[in-house]
Predict the structure of ATP-binding cassette, sub-family B (MDR/TAP), member 10.
Amino acid sequence: MSAPFFLGKVIDTIYTSASDTEAMTASLSSLCILLTGVFLCGGAANAARVYLMQLSGQQIVRNLRASVFSSVLRQEVAFFDKNRTGELINRLSADTAVVGRSITDNLSDGLRAVAQAAAGVSMMFYISPSLASFVLLIVPPMAAVAVVYGRYLRSISKRTQDALAQATQLAEERISNIRTVRAFGKELSEVDTYTQKADHVLSLAKLEALMRAGFFGLTGVSGNLMILAVLYKGGLLMASQHMTIGELSSFLMYTFWVGISIAGLSSFYSELMKGFGAGARLWELLDRKPEFPLNEGRVLPAEQLKGQLQFRDVSFAYPARREAPIFQNLNLLVPAGTIMAVVGPSGSGKSSLVSLLLRLYDPDAGVISIDGYEIKDLNPYWLRSHIGTVSQEPVLFSCSIRDNIAYGAEDPEAVTMEDVYRAARVANAFDFVQAFPKGFDTVVGEKGVLLSGGQKQRIAIARALLKVNTDSFILFFFTAHALDAENEFLVQEALERLMEGRTVVIIAHRLSTIKNADSVAVIDRRHVAECGPPTELLGNREGLFRKLMEKQAFLQEEQQRALQ
Ligand SMILES: Nc1ncnc2c1ncn2[C@@H]1O[C@H](COP(=O)(O)OP(=O)(O)OP(=O)(O)O)[C@@H](O)[C@H]1O
């Protein structure tokens, strides 16, 4: 019986011509040429494969990141009350990288291992079906072990990524609030806390490494068992003249080959399971449908807009704290083009009122409407694009003052320097910005930390102005908790220019800011306790508004007395 494959044939020739030096040399050199050819082609193909896989891997990670980021930004605000920034950032950077690796480099290695194993197994069957069936008996129990192991590895990988996300969350929060950490002298204890979290990640990673090592050991042992089986059964077949030495040696070679491919496959499998583990949260994020749409719903023609705001029997509790209702059957009407100041004790729900109007949350019951249209039916994106908000703690981005102001416009790229100057002038920000050495190119630091509170607020007004200038018909303004007299005057002046001809809701933390208001709504105990023109409310001696005013006046008197 002649050897069924070239390599087997060569080995047979070497073996039978052992006494003939010339024939043996010829056979050996043809073997060398064959192997050199195979290795060269294999090397080139491998280099091309690695390059292409790296490229497509980066592409896949990029697409994955873009999709996850897009999905995260579309979520409703309540989602961000429950999910923390650092954790989401970790998903976006670390989890996507793990998943990317497991489905590109690894997938290509895996496919190569599958192809190699399939070719090797076919050759084994080709040479001797009976020996191949005997040797491959080891595969079913190995596959069963692999399934159980894969599940376990998946769950460990998920736990590792979760632990890493928690560590990143802590780091993100502490680094971004370093001033508070430093003020309380907590650097060392924070380092300890972070180290503990990193230790937790390490212990999970160790467990994972142990599991992988165990699995590799197992595949190694099964490879050796296959070789033993070949030697034993193949020896018997050779003794009974059912196999030549060439066939047995090439069979043995293919067994090695299959053994190595199985080791490659197990590595692929464990990486894939790791990817699945890390991917679980990513798929959750990708699949999550926002509670309400970002850019769907009714869009009203500009001429229909007047800006009347109305709350009818509104009840609301934050999704993150259902047990603590904020409003119960709240009713409030803000006529179009008027200024309404909302006052009330701290935590009474003044800011929540604005969050509902911006449709950051939906009420649990009741109706909120603008010009008679329920805001649930309106396109939230369109709605917000018509509302200017100057918030209580204006958050700026870590770019230049110019870019921060231009951010307010629909297309910041199209904003000219003249537009920025004009907005800054109206917002009383122009002079102080020009006084900076780099003027409007001054970078404001993360969240605007390089500016004072009053400066930040005036830049935020300029930013709102660029938005308001275009087509906002409603304006929400949160007065700052504390501004010095000069800043307060400048902000107030800027604000008055902004208010002209619009419906304005002022969330008044300082009662001095309500002097321009047409009416005042006092929020207390989950509803509007009083509502009317300020002078009328002041006339009610027993009224809440009067009491709030007296309290503040009293505090001011105390301060003045303390200064004397
Ligand atoms: N995202 C949130 N999730 C859960 N509860 C919240 C959330 N935001 C605010 N709250 C709670 O809702 C209540 C009303 O808060 P809100 O910020 O509306 O009060 P406020 O009247 O504007 O207070 P202040 O004058 O102190 O700024 C508070 O008890 C607050 O703890």
